[in-house]
Amino acid sequence: MRLPTQSTDRGLSGRLLWDLLTFDKLMTNSVVHLIYWAGLAIIVLMGFGMVGAAVGVALREATGGNFMGVLLAIPLLVAGLIVLGALALLWRSFCEFYVAIFKISEDLAALREQSTADQAKARALNQTVHR
Fold this sequence. Notes:
The chain has three helices and no strands. The chain is an all-alpha fold.
């Protein structure tokens, strides 16, 4: 098991660089949030495409006086919106899973630091008792 690194006063930019190079602090939570919003934007664009396709089918078929295209466009629109909602929920679940995994990693690191501090305190107390 890797021991936690000793924190020294490096300043804000030095500490950020050190955390980035040593993986002591994970930056993935903020990255996952950016990826979530980018993926959600792509899903919304796909939804606009599905709505546009449904409207296009309805308009194409309605110009010839045939209203069968409108009847075809309505289920296409409803199915597209249902798929859009399902994709948004799946994408959210996927991103929350990764955030939870990285939160567990941070919690384990905090527990490791607490355990090391408790062991050092116990050693110091043990040494003072035996003197």
